[in-house]
Amino acid sequence: xxxxxxxxxxxxxxxxxxxxxxxxxxxxxxxxxxxxxxxxxxxxxxxxxxxxxxxxxxxxxxxxxxxxxxxxxxxxxxxxxxxxxxxxxxxxxxxxxxxxxxxxxxxxxxxxxxxxxxxxxxxxxxxxxxxxxxxxxxxxxxxxxxxxxxxxxxxxxxxxxxxxxxxxxxxxxxxxxxxxxxxxxxxxxxxxxxxxxxxxxxxxxxxxxxxxxxxxxxxxxxxxxxxxxxxxxxxxxxxxxxxxxxxxxxxxxxxxxxxxxxxxxxxxxxxxxxxxxxxxxxxxxxxxxxxxxxxxxxxxxxxxxxxxxxxxxxxxxxxxxxxxxxxxxxxxxxxxxxxxxxxxxxxxxxxxxxxxxxxxxxxxxxxxxxxxxxxxxxxxxxxxxxxxxxxxxxxxxxxxxxxxxxxxxxxxxxxxxxxxxxxxxxxxxxxxxxxxxxxxxxxxxxxxxxxxxxxxxxxxxxxxxxxxxxxxxxxxxxxxxxxxxxxxxxxxxxxxxxxxxxxxxxxxxxxxxxxxxxxxxxxxxxxxxxxxxxxxxxxxxxxxxxxxxxxxxxxxxxxxxxxxxxxxxxxxxxxxxxxxxxxxxxxxxxxxxxxxxxxxxxxxxxxxxxxxxxxxxxxxxxxxxxxxxxxxxxxxxxxxxxxxxxxxxxxxxxxxxxxxxxxxxxxxxxx
Length: 671
Hints:
Number of helices: 2
Oligomer: single chain
């Protein structure tokens, strides 16, 4: 194992070097252009990420003299962009930027630029009194010509029954589309269908509505009997889905026990989850069913449940809505209730924005919807959102994994993502990383030279690289063959700020991102890490986190789950893992894949196991964090460490952290 080097150094968070002759103290603006028009009423402002540790200040005003300020804010400049969380009414606005040093000294403002917020030209309406054919006629008009159009729902309750695996609303090749809910409640009665599909579109807004599924895609049940040897669980359904077969194929059906003291949380002394086989479920009485463990390995965890436990059984089928290959998509003041699948899952996006999104169940303890994922060239931006009572992760910000189907020449590759929804649009100059999932080591980082062939949305591409990687193991098994990641499509500029993550089975934020800011969020009651920066070698997700600021967050009572390994239980956790072989106990990677992580000014209270744990990092500063544990916590287990700097790290600096605990406790461990 490599030794952790605790040298004092100046941690610079950088992604690019300013062009020769440019003034590095003045932001180099990328967009919008002066005088640009937009229909997206929470616009964004982008600049070239600077070398060095700066904040970027922004002012938006109604007038060119900046006397009528409508928004003033600051964010670490490495993010490269800012999203106005305010809803700007149609009209002219003026905006400017300036950099601020860590000392608080501000540079000069950029010249003011004008931006005009406009409404689309056409208007379509639906009302609760319409028949289903009348509503479908309106949706068809939108689908036929999705350009500069407002689709307005008059306030009311709408029930939809779309065709199998289709969508209520489809937008393809659209531009300047606003879908305005006016507080309406949308209910999807077809379990296989999505509520919306937005593909190959630009400037799309969905706002001010709530949506759910009927029947509810989860069951709340009480365990009656268990047979670990047979791998069965007999249970009585108390609420939610109450049939023998879920009315479509599910991709993940699992169960987990609820905490009797707080039924919105995972039971601290039961397994995190057990996968079930949906096709084997048997009805054995009124509201009673026999459920079967999916595989032999699941029988043990199923047997750890006890008669009398209340369990949740989600029927995973995603996505609730699909957004793929889109530019500038805004999800504004939308609420999900009975919807267990993901908010969106699509590749090739840019400038995804979630402002004021709420995931909250209406029938507790049935779970809420949480999973936000995708791979963006810039984004997603998540602000003023609430993720509550989650059956899985909060936002899971994923990257993209491709496998090598064939290698016609040393520099030419035919590659495939597997799931088409993860397919990102690649460009010459994109940064590629070739990685061995069994050793956990990088083979090469190089650039895309040319994209020779591509069918967007299928996952298949033919590319050439600048250099020819060596040591490759082509093939289509993600557990053993070479992984290919496009770091240019791994959520550059991901921002999560001013959000709440309350109660859940797993993580608050699960992050694979670059140039990221996670600040001013509140986390409570999450059984795994509140903030987890990782990779995912056995899933179609990302590989590393680089240039990330984690600051000013509040984390309370997180990391108490029984069967989540220690490396996934730090309140703030950074690590990188590989595929474990059958005879191995450890799946830690030896590679320092993460780069330049700044963890500062966070307040951690009553965490379980580890407060802050970092591994596989080169360049990490942990400073001015406050960690406090109290004597009366009831979920305390064996190991409690305030800050753990593990063995595969380099250039880690600890400074001015305050750690107090009334239990038997180890303040700091450095391996």
